[in-house]
Amino acid sequence: GLGARTAGFCPGSGRWKVLRRFALQTLRNFGMGKRSLEERIQQEARCLVQELAQTQAAPFDPTFLISRAVSNVICSIVFGDRFDYEDQAFLTLVGLINQNFQLLSSPWGQVGMYNLFPGPMSCLPGPHHRIFQNFEQLRLFVLERVKMHQESFDPNCPRDFIDCFLLRMEQENQDPRSYFHTETLVITTHNLFFGGTETVSTTLRYGFLLLMKYPEIQAKVQAEIDQVIGRHRSPSVEDRARMPYTDAVIHEVQRFGDVIPMGLPHAVIRDTWFRGFLLPEGTNVLPLLFSVHNDPTQFKDPATFDPAHFLDPSGGFRKHDAFMAFSMGKRICLGEGLARMELFLFFAAVLQRFALTPLVRPEDIDISPLMSGLGNVPRPYEFRAVPR
């Protein structure tokens, strides 16, 4: 079902372990957590800033601009290159991802995704069918990219994630037990592409909306940026350690926005007793992350957006055990390191150059989600990016 497609692979098999380990190692080799990847994000942040400057402080909806910038980072790792922001195939791709995230967060999408009524759902008309159609279009796009890579593949010089996977396929092509073949390459690439685009871009959109709702918080972030980075050089990951307030704001955006509130479906690998209930082997389990992020025993006032949730009494950044924006356990988001880098560098680059100005009074900004299901989707909004 769709839950298995979006989460990855059959939870009980060894396949997901092998492919996850490969994906993590390959991402590290291509710079996850290293300077080479930082430079890719910095490049994309500069492109985003240039696009914002071209709006000339006119009102605009940032949804697709932010999605294109974030998506291009994972594109450079997976496909070997970024796309021009006006590339029609790229625009279609980003549109499909954005639409699917909204559909998966709707009531129809939740029923379809978690397969509550698989028989009736396949017969009933409704927008849940669009989810599968969109995923199929994304799959075909990835498959076409894989074919292009196969035609120009040089085993002595892998260029990106797809080439590394093709190399492993070549090395194991005589092993009937190998998990490395075209089908798993397409699924893995699709998961990296979808997961590496929507969650970070939605978090950024929520963050910009919250900073307009609370302009005093935006001003404090910009004061810290001016003090630590200044106005004339690109933010770097090293700056984060000297910017506790900005780091706290980003963590609070993730906690409060709670972009994936229900987590992704898991399955128990053996009969499991939990609080007096038997969960038979194969039972789907949803880790409700929102219950932790809104726990008043863990956060002083969980219904309020307050960076102090991640600050100690002296104003230093404070880690919080109840922060689970990337889930937890063996299936914790494998792109956590990449996402942390992106959120900090994109936030800092935009706020370094622009004041984000709403079109309505801050007190009139609605920060409740447009819809809440697989994801919390912020309401559409426009703002002005006013040069500082």
From TrEMBL:
SUPFAM superfamilies membership: Cytochrome P450
Entry GO MF terms: arachidonate epoxygenase activity; heme binding; iron ion binding; oxidoreductase activity, acting on paired donors, with incorporation or reduction of molecular oxygen, reduced flavin or flavoprotein as one donor, and incorporation of one atom of oxygen; oxygen binding
Query: How does this protein lie in the membrane?
Result: Peripheral membrane protein
Keyword Transport assigned to the entry: answer is no
Q: Which cofactor does it need?
A: heme
The positions annotated for binding heme are C333
**What subcellular compartments does it reside in?**
Endoplasmic reticulum membrane; Microsome membrane
Q: What is its main location?
A: endoplasmic reticulum
Q: Which Gene3D superfamilies match?
A: Cytochrome P450
Q: Name one GO biological process term.
A: epoxygenase P450 pathway
Q: Which PROSITE patterns match?
A: CYTOCHROME_P450
Q: Which InterPro entries match?
A: Cyt_P450 (IPR001128), Cyt_P450_CS (IPR017972), Cyt_P450_CYP2_fam (IPR020469), Cyt_P450_E_grp-I (IPR002401), Cyt_P450_sf (IPR036396), Cytochrome_P450_fam2 (IPR050182)
Query: What is one term from the GO cellular component aspect held by the record?
Result: endoplasmic reticulum membrane
What the entry lists under Pfam families is as follows: p450
Supply the alphabetized keyword list: Endoplasmic reticulum, Heme, Iron, Membrane, Metal-binding, Microsome, Monooxygenase, Oxidoreductase
| Protein family (similarity comment) | Belongs to the cytochrome P450 family.
Name under which the protein is recorded: Uncharacterized protein
Taxonomy, top ranks, is:
Eukaryota, Metazoa, Chordata, Craniata, Vertebrata
